[in-house]
């Protein structure tokens, strides 16, 4: 099965709060087989914490049957000083005991946060996540690994969905994390496993891990959600809350994948991408369903790197501008963040950089229109 066919696949673990240990191992191994993860090298991302140590233990037990050769990958963020170094030392010790090679990298997310324009600086969490992913990618290449496995589980899925919902998000923000990335390389084998089952495995197997004290800090919203609100919601409304949230997010992801296919096809009719920006059809925007029109505009804005800067207000302003069609004054310009603007030309609307761009050279004489 190729990677595109597996995209969005979920591991079919029994979603109960307690697993018999044999069932967890069988489901874990079967899930990897279902995703085609056999006969190759796999990098296991290990922080030293409980979840990643359980992932490592499970993979180590299943590797012979799956024909896998494992490499341990550790990223030291350096955010907790000596504690971070102790995490790395513990990971190294476990890797040696399991007779698995270890690759490690040190990163400095604070340095990333201090560089670049202030409005474009990522949060510390974003910087850490991005640098960690980059480091793991490099380690996988150095180790000749076909896959990279991380320890995200059902609790992480539920926390992410709830946090996004509470903070406000689009329907796209409520889609589930998937067990395998689009390119087939990144894996989350524990994604349907509840945290209680991970704790049971760690206790039964005497898995040793390092505790990150910041995970108990109530100043962080995700910690409060995990430690206080999810248990209360589970007790009050639904003991299978993690399963319900996971099922919802997966259904949302399937629906959005189908919708995105429609938008992909429609985009061929409504805009075209050139070297310096995008040209939109001049006519017909007012006849499109609102949901499709918004997604087409958003897709176009993403294509020129405006996803981070564009708000709902910006998107609606662009859509309103496009709907004016031929009634919009020629050369009328709508300014957008990031140094871009959209302008009415004779036979199209053009989205391009306001300064320093020559426009759509390869489309200079093209007429962009809606096909009938």
* Uncertain stretches of 5 or more adjacent residues: 1-17, 357-372
* Strand order within the widest beta sheet: 3-2-1-4-5
Strand content: 5-15%
The residue fraction in helices comes out at 40-55%
Compute the separation of the termini in Å: 38 Å
Summed over residues and divided by their number, the pLDDT gives a mean of 84
Total beta-strand segments: 10
Q: Round the Cα radius of gyration to an integer and report it.
A: 24 Å
What is the CATH topology of the largest domain?
Rossmann fold
State the helix count.
12
Largest sheet: 5 strands, parallel
Number of domains: 2
Determine and state the CATH class of the largest domain: Alpha Beta
List keywords for this structure.
disordered C terminus, five-stranded parallel β-sheet, Uridine Diphospho-n-acetylenolpyruvylglucosamine Reductase, domain 3, Rossmann fold, alpha/beta, 12 helices, 372 residues
Q: Which helices and strands appear, and what pairs or packs with what?
A:
Blueprint: H1 3-6, H2 21-34, E1 40-45, H3 50-66, E2 68-76, H4 82-97, E3 102-106, H5 109-113, H6 124-142, E4 147-149, H7 154-167, E5 186-187, H8 195-204, H9 221-236, H10 241-270, E6 271-273, E7 277-281, H11 290-303, H12 312-323, E8 333-336, E9 340-344, E10 348-353
Parallel strand pairs: 1-2, 1-4, 2-3, 4-5
Antiparallel strand pairs: 6-7, 7-10, 8-9, 9-10
Helix pairs in contact: 2-3, 3-8, 7-9, 7-10, 10-11, 11-12
